[in-house]
Amino acid sequence: LEEELRENIIEQIHPEQAKWFNPTFIIPKPHQKLRKILDASALNKEIQTIHFKMNGTDQVRDLIRKEDWATSLDLKSAFHHLIVYPPHRPYLAFEAMGKVYQYRAMPFGTQHSPIFFTQALAMVLTKIRRESDIRILNYADDLLLLHQNKERLRKQTLIIMKILEAFEWTIVQEKCEIEPKQQTNFIGQTWDLERMYIKMTDQRKQELRYQLRRFISLTQRQAPIKIKYLASIIGKLNFLRVQVKEASLYLKLMESTKTRALKNKKWRENMILSKEILLELYQWLGMIVNNQEMTLEVKIPETVMVSDASPKGWGVTLELQTGDTLLQHGEQNK
């Protein structure tokens, strides 16, 4: 609280100035640190939804090239760089230690925060891309920088850091990878750019394993769970689709369970998970534990076979990579 006051992220106001009170609480972060969270879930229901697609593993896969070198940057308190329009601040009020405060900088928690932040950062990245041949992709406040030349990437990374700081973005040095590497962790995945393979980071693997075991236990006990939590685990598992090619197939039962529940209930209401989804949950648990790496290269097939059949006959065509075509056909045996 004192840190946010000192950095002008929040400001104290009279209670009658607040137009909407939001619960606030503390959650633990790695390395024994704490983060203050604004629970704006009730406010989000009153805000008009904006459809916006964030970058993800698909975009990383499309951007990288074999033998690339990578660096990564992390922006500190990135959302707080955006100033909230003054008439809107009273809707971002909260109470703490008998006093009332409101956010003057963009907080975590509102559904529009990631969208506005991404749009603001995109303007800076557009300028950088015009002046550099470094390929850049961001996921919220994490940036991935790529280039085929190791030394050029090292120099350009330092220049890009200075540009970001000139726009008053704060870089978390201890979380950055300034030295180019061919194996890097980004958005919960380990990307091997020399071998062109991908797998989950150990931290992502542990988190998903814990959540899946919890879901299995709740399903077996037929205990109630909020629909939004089921939607959350579906989203996290679908995020692995670059590594798990059949991800959407392995989520069909969970997706249909969620859809049926939402016909009569709202996101924050409880539901009982059908035991039929246990098969999918155990399948995913096995895949998460194994964490089998997946190639990122698109392999060209050596041969393509096309077959057809009818009551009278059959035929098959074999197309070779050389361009030759083999054809065979015959009549059906009665």
Automatic annotation (TrEMBL):
Cleaved signal peptide residues: none
PROSITE patterns reported in the protein's UniProt record: RT_POL (PS50878)
Entry's Gene Ontology molecular function annotations: RNA-directed DNA polymerase activity
Keywords: Nucleotidyltransferase, RNA-directed DNA polymerase, Transferase
SUPFAM superfamilies tied to this protein: DNA/RNA polymerases (SSF56672)
Domain spans labelled Reverse transcriptase: 8-191
PANTHER family attached to this UniProt entry: REVERSE TRANSCRIPTASE DOMAIN-CONTAINING PROTEIN, RIBONUCLEASE H
Protein name: Putative reverse transcriptase
